[in-house]
Amino acid sequence: MAQEDIFKKLVAHCKEYGYVFPSSDIYDGLGAVYDYGQNGVELKNNIKKYWWESMVRLHENIVGIDSAIFMHPTIWKASGHVDAFNDPLIDNKDSKKRYRADVLIEDHIAKYDEKIEKDVEKARKRFGDKFDETLFRQTNPQILAHLEKREALRESMAKALNANDLTALRQIIIDNNIVCPISGTANWTEVRQFNLMFSTEMGSTAEGTSKIYLRPETAQGIFVNFLNVQKTGRMKIPFGIAQIGKAFRNEIVARQFIFRMREFEQMEMQFFVRPGTELEWFKKWRETRMKWHQLLGFGAQNYRFHDHEKLAHYANAATDIEYKFPFGFKEVEGIHSRTDFDLSQHQKYSGKKLQYFDTELNESYVPYVIETSIGVDRMFLQIISAAYCEEDLSKDGKQDSRVVLKLPAALAPVKMAVMPLVKKDGLPEKAQEIMDLLKYDFNCQYDEKDSIGKRYRRQDAIGTPFCITVDHQTLQDNAVTIRHRDTMEQERIPIAQLYDILKEKTDLGNLLRQIGK
């Protein structure tokens, strides 16, 4: 099945099973805005908890804050967002659709990767067990030609972006015959810059209003609170400040479901270090963050680093952690060495000293910053994409299949479903006793509608790792049948052991302990 078709099924699955709904759905929705349903909000909260505790609980020198969405407008002047927070946009005159010029080129670059993978798969089928993939990639003339074209295109795009040369950016699109996905034509307008910030007014009277912005990132709320946190927390360099919060960008080219939205949530940590040590810390956080992702068990081969070809004006190093979505490798997290740009700018515009006195050096300086920034919504989509499976269970000529979300048990919205085999003979009452026993420690769901087979399938689709079935024997031996989602294996367990089993299998602490190793 084509990856595009899988992604469409994934989007439909999210709506059908209470994960993600189009916002304002009864009014036909609002472009690039989504609501999280009853299962989606649980998964989202578990993702945030995994990030927060891995940052704040596991690091004695990192603390958290929650800054306001509305901020003094001069903050965005100091940060450069008012003057430089732009995307290069281009319109197709035939379809009337608008695109980001750099994204059009990146998608074209991705086609070379797709061609390479197809060539590799063909060779694998042709040569079988004798196939040496590494040697094939290094020596096959067709693959080497694709790589050369891809790198040449990537370099020319990076050069145009770094020079802010919009004419050159358009010429790359024309020269490579990049067409509109809707019209199929290359009838393009000129490329121009578009500022992404939402603005509004604050004030009670028309004459007394002032223009302010919805924050386009959460980082600046950390920087303007640097001194407050450092002094009240008696923090010593190196130390970090973490934050989870909403951000807003007027994305003209919002697409790919919740991958790029106008209202989204970020998990960011700014790590303040002594100047001259920033690249060493950048390397450490690069490794730490990749380990955090890979511990979820979705396969190390599905992650990669992508070093930035165009560095922001304030950065001296930057890389993205990318995951292989159904629509290709895309960024889920960025790690940036921001130098002392942010604190220096706010020191300049506010007139307040934002410096740290280093007792070891006996001098004051503006700290350098390493940033880790991850989109909650992208992380959500990455986990759902990795967990979504369609399995053929046909056996002995009998057709059967299931759709299952193989979510990490620690992140799954519902940890356990309790099911009476039938709705009589005291089984529902016994099942409710088990619910009352476990609901204070685990998010449990009671399910008695439909046959036991249909209930199992429903919980598979939700991603529930364990199903507990109460049958007539339970009333005699005080034991239940526990079904494991991924293997569908069943075993008989005393009710008294349920808490310990669920605690071991679903405890977030088990993931956190692996990070600390």
Secondary-structure blueprint of this entry?
Blueprint: H1 3-16, E1 20-22, E2 34-36, H2 38-57, E3 62-64, H3 73-78, H4 81-84, E4 86-91, E5 98-100, H5 101-127, H6 133-139, H7 141-162, H8 166-175, E6 192-195, E7 199-202, E8 210-213, H9 219-223, H10 226-232, E9 239-248, E10 263-273, H11 278-294, E11 303-307, E12 317-325, E13 328-339, H12 341-350, E14 356-358, E15 363-365, E16 368-375, H13 376-387, E17 388-392, E18 401-405, E19 416-420, H14 427-438, E20 444-446, H15 452-462, E21 466-470, H16 474-477, E22 479-484, E23 490-494, H17 498-506, H18 508-516
Parallel strand pairs: 3-9, 19-20, 19-21
Antiparallel strand pairs: 1-2, 4-5, 4-6, 7-8, 9-10, 10-16, 11-12, 12-13, 13-16, 14-15, 17-18, 21-22, 22-23
What would you say this structure looks like, in words?
- InterPro entries: aa-tRNA-synt_IIb, aa-tRNA-synth_II, aa-tRNA-synth_II/BPL/LPL, Anticodon-bd, Anticodon-bd_dom_sf, Gly-tRNA_synthase/POLG2, Gly_tRNA_ligase_bac, GlyRS-like_core.
- By secondary structure, the chain is an alpha+beta fold.
- Helix 2 (38-57) crosses helix 13.
- The chain has 3 domains: 1-71 and 196-392, BirA Bifunctional Protein, domain 2 (2-Layer Sandwich), CATH 3.30.930; 86-193, Herpes Virus-1, CATH 3.30.40; 402-516, Rossmann fold.
- The chain contains 18 helices and 23 strands.
CATH architecture of the largest domain: 2-Layer Sandwich
| Arrangement of strands in the largest sheet | 3-9-10-16-13-12-11
Spatial shape: globular
Q: What is the typical, i.e. mean, pLDDT?
A: 91
CATH class placement of the largest domain: Alpha Beta
Number of domains: 3
Rounded to the nearest angstrom, the distance between the terminal CA atoms is: 39 Å
Residues in helix, %: 25-40%
Count of β-strands: 23
Supply Rg: 26 Å
Content-based structural category: alpha+beta
Low-confidence stretches: none
Relevant CATH superfamily of the largest domain: Bira Bifunctional Protein, Domain 2
